[in-house]
Each structure stands twice: as C-alpha cells, then as structure tokens.
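ok, trying the design again with the full structure, not the truncated one.
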C-alpha cells in the first residue's frame, strides 16, 4: 500500500499534536495518565513492517509516565462500516473501561474510504457520522480528536 505525502502529513500533524499535548505542563497535571484510543482507516491501522498506518508507531514510541492506548484502526474502514461492524462499540467500551484509571483520548480519522464512489457516502452523511462519533466519545468520558483529510471536493 502506498501512502501519499498528504496522508503522511495528516498523520504527522496528529502525532505532533498529541506529543505536544502530552509534553505540555497542563497535560502533566492531569489526575490520571492518558489512554489513547485510535479509531480509523488504514492510515491509522496496524500495517506490515513496510506499511503505513501511524497508530502503532504513535503508541509504541510516545507512551510514557503511565500512559497507554489501543489501536482499533483497520484497512478499508469507513465511518459507516466502522460503526456497522461493531468497531465503534469496542472503542466506546474501552473508553468506559479505562476512564476511572486514565484520561481517555479518542482519535477519529476517516475519509480515505468514505470518499470512494463505491462507499456511497455523501459529504452530509460523512460529516454527520464524524459529529456523532465526537458526541458519543465525549458522552462516554473521552476527549475526542477528529483528524481527517480534506475531502469535501471529492465527496458527493
């Protein structure tokens, strides 16, 4: 799988924002260490050693001082299939399980598959799906962080 420079840039911005947040003095004063729950498509997912998902690299290189996390990203996921396949329920269950001991952060990164004509997902539906993810993550006790490509011109 080949990952574009744009995709790499989006992933790097996501990672940098978390590292900056974690290294900030305000973040260090949280009463509980962070727990990062990663939800997304192949840009987040576990990949082969030559593959490209950023999620595992982030979790494997930036967790310290009691921080932890879990990567739920998988190849081919859309905002619809992630919910319909039960993956989003797993994300919310994890948030509820860890929220007493950790401060959960949920990264939501979709769009590369939502924009494909075969997915039949409109810009309105995509936007609504992201908003629902953010609301539900917040309601479960997490701080959501939505990362997605600029796809408005490509979605119907």
């Amino acid at each position: 799988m080949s990952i574009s420079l744009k995709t790499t840039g989006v992933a790097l911005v996501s990672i940098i924002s978390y590292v900056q947040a974690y290294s900030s003095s305000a973040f260090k004063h949280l009463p509980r260490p962070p727990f990062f729950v990663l939800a997304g498509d192949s840009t987040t997912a576990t990949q082969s050693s030559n593959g490209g998902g950023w999620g595992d690299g982030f979790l494997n290189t930036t967790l310290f001082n009691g921080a932890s996390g879990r990567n739920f990203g998988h190849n081919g996921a859309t905002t619809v299939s992630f919910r319909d396949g039960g993956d989003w329920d797993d994300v919310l269950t994890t948030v509820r399980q860890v929220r007493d001991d950790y401060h959960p952060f949920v990264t939501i990164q979709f769009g590369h598959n939502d924009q494909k004509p075969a997915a039949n997902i409109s810009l309105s539906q995509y936007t609504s799906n992201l908003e629902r993810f953010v609301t539900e993550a917040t309601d479960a006790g997490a701080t959501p962080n939505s990362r997605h490509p600029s796809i408005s011109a490509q979605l119907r």
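Keeping the full-length input from now on. The first strand starts at residue 34 and ends at 40.
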